[in-house]
Write a structure and sequence with these properties.
The chain is mainly alpha-helical. The chain contains seven helices and two strands, in the order ααααββααα. β1 and β2 form a beta hairpin. The protein is globular.
Length: about 160
């Protein structure tokens, strides 16, 4: 089955999925955020085949989320470290963590998100930087942007109660 490319879409979600659109890539970024950098460490953590891991690491490097750095010359060995773009993916991982804990809670969590200084559990909340309001349906809505096609405009206008 051939994979669909989202490269030509104007949607930021679709363009993001073009780079991290499979669960392995997101789990690799999770592990990299937890400090894993080496191929064998990723493989052990994820239980992924070497071919699949090589392919996904290459995609993440090409997308600019990871940087491949040589750490040994003999034999040649590489590590994969988060780039600025990769580190900026952290809030996405935290949002998935919070969503998963709320809707699919494990019997006992294997990772806790805590405040660095106090050690207290952190309850993630997405907020607007300007107003401080939560990014929920009560405070926000999606509106058509400049490149929205007629179908998307009609859909969002209908969602927002705008008469066309």
């Amino acid at each position: 089955m051939e994979r669909t490319s989202y490269r030509d879409m104007d949607c930021p979600i679709a363009l993001s999925l073009e780079r991290v659109g499979d669960w392995w890539s997101i789990l690799i970024l999770r592990d990299a955020t937890h400090g894993i950098t080496r191929f064998d460490q990723f493989q052990k953590s994820l239980g992924i085949s070497t071919n699949s891991l090589s392919r996904r690491l290459g995609v993440l490097v090409e997308a600019g989320l990871l940087e491949r750095r040589q750490y040994s010359e003999r034999p040649p060995r590489y590590e994969y470290v988060l780039t600025e773009s990769g580190r900026a993916f952290r809030p996405v991982l935290i949002a998935l963590y919070a969503w998963g804990n709320e809707h699919f809670p494990p019997e006992a969590p294997n990772v806790l998100l805590v405040h660095k200084e106090s050690g207290d559990d952190v309850e993630p909340l997405l907020i607007d930087r300007t107003t401080g309001d939560p990014l929920d349906e009560e405070h926000t809505s999606f509106r058509p942007g400049p490149s929205a096609d007629d179908r998307l405009r009609a859909l969002l206008d209908r969602q927002n109660g705008v008469n066309a």
